[in-house]
Amino acid sequence: MWNEYSINHLKNNKSTGVSIMIAVFIAAMFLSLITTLFYNMWLDNIHQIVKKEGDWQAKISENLSAQDLELILNLPNVKDIKTQETEAGAENLIYFHNLRSIYEDMAKMQELIGLEASAIQYHDNLLSEYFIFAPDDERPPLLLAFYVFVMCLTCFALILIIRNAFLVSMQARMQQLGILQSIGATPGQIKSFLVQEALALSLIPILLGIGSGVALCWVLYRLAGAIVSTYGAQSTAFYYHLGLFLIAFFASLLTVLCSAWLPARRLSKLSPLQAIKGDEVLIPGKEKKFRFVSRVFGIEGELARKSLYQRRKALRTATLSLTLSFLVFSMFLSFITLSSISTKYTYFERYKDTWDIMATVRNQSIGDLFDYSESLWEIADLKQVESLKVYQKATVYTLLPEDMLSEELQKLGGLSAVAGSAVALTDNKYKVHVPLVIMDDESFADYCAGIGVKLISPLQGMVTINRIWDSVNSNYRFKSYIPFIKEQDNLVLSLAQDEVGTAVVNVPVLAYTDKVPALREEYSNCTLVQVLPASTWQNLRDQVDFDVQETYINVRTTTDEDIEFVQAQLEQALSGKDYEIENRVDEELFNQKIFKGYILLIGGLCLLLAIIGLANVFANTLGFIYQRKREFARYISIGLTPRGMKKMFCVEALIIGGKPILITIPLTLLFAIFAASASYFPLGEFFAALPVIPLTVFTLIILGCVALAYYLGGRKVWRSNIIEILKNDMFV
User: Fold this and answer.
1) Domains of the chain (ranges plus CATH)?
2) Whole-structure pTM value
């Protein structure tokens, strides 16, 4: 019986069925798009990490015997071991079948072959992408948490939207349902068949929506790939998995079930008399006056506000939907504003004035480029070149006694108070990382001249960057520095290649400064950076087996127009070598394109959600007007003029559209203030860049949609016959 009834109803009310199917289709497409998008973003992060750092999962930085390697390979979860030689010594890269037990397996391995804890290293970046963290790591899986949050928020928004489509369809046959109840149909039967009918209508739209969401995501990734490939980067691949379909399908199905169950449950609770009568039951209670509205808008304002108040439950869905849409849109604009401000403090922006062309030459030992052919150094003499610096990098260690720390650092509680767990105190000495920057002698001399250091030939020694980040009294965004060590005359630092006590060399300190060389280099906050000339470094190699594998050439041109010419000259000078060259202008354009593409992608999702919310409000408001036909007829019958009716409509539209705006603006400001404070951005800088125009335009669109709904509904009212409305309870 119920199936026959549903089929007949759908045949006779095709427009209602179509509206439901469209709403479900949009919801499924949106959920599928989000799921596929997050999956591809996740895989892209993994591929980027593997490309830069390798696909190893754990590492043992120690020479292992053949017997030890065999013992490790015999462990049931160990998949493979790859041994490679580096400048720091042998590294054993370990791969596992099941990553979930990697920490337990490495602990067993450490005990089995007697390893030191310092010899074991985990690929934390890669493992975190698979949501695997150290037992003592309390960091949550942020990407997964963010995905779950977005999916829950989206499902909630879609439930509000689809619910309205089902509610309109079910309320249109409220009288029929009342008649069915009067002849014996139970509330459970009515609720069950309404939900079954909703599922039958939604199955095909869900499947089509999922396919459309995947196709849309594929198009977006193809566009992103085309953008990045234009600038020489590797295009973004697209991936899909059966699990994505299942997630999107069940999420869509659950959304539809909730959307249909809520109005079905509400209608099933109506008594047969209430359902047959077809009137919305007003909320009983004490009469409430709205003095402010009535004083401003007169009796029409009082009537509008009273009517909306009595039907506040019916309007709650529209208010929530519109509030959510506006909130998502406004938060997205705030996020874009914060991102734009953040670009001013990025690595690229901080160091973009220190280079125009950067060449990285691989597999180069010390002296190979410092003493290279004259063609390289001839480039420095070109009028188009402002400066040319050749340098290399290495990392060594030193031991610093506590009394060697600066007074400022000791007042803060010592090195541990500033650097945290990055350093450890052993026998009243700190083991400190010492990054070395080895510059060609001419560039080193220019650097010393810039900081006011007079050099004595021959160059034997180094300049100490004597500063450390005061993390106690400043944040990472706006760092302040204090002296690292006491500035002593004739200081000699003992540098070790790896573990302290092995391969130690003593290097005199020529001078102290807090100014780093003008290179495109980011230095750790709690390291004691040393700058030394190539001649000093060459002498060190005679004492210690240091071997630097990469050499960097930093070029600054006179103008941006000279970059291409100088780059061509540099490529010619490096002909035959294994090198990679970067161009600041191209890098800047590439970063801008990536940022714009990212904004376009996320903005498109937010805009789609906003459009859906606006459409829902429009439909809800229009349906709300149609359901009040008898009320409007009574107002007209007792003398309310068309002008008064229009005024009442304007007040209602202003309240319906204005309430979400008044709710959203404070929430958006709180979000922006919290995000800016958490990122240590100046609030004044944020409010100066606040996107007022887009927010204003969207506000006007909201009010316009509500006004249009009232205009269309009002036209229906003016053209209706009052007598027939009161008699038949329906529009002619």
Assistant:
1) 1-54+123-278 (no CATH), 55-122 (3.30.70.1970), 284-351+585-732 (no CATH), 364-577 (no CATH)
2) 0.58
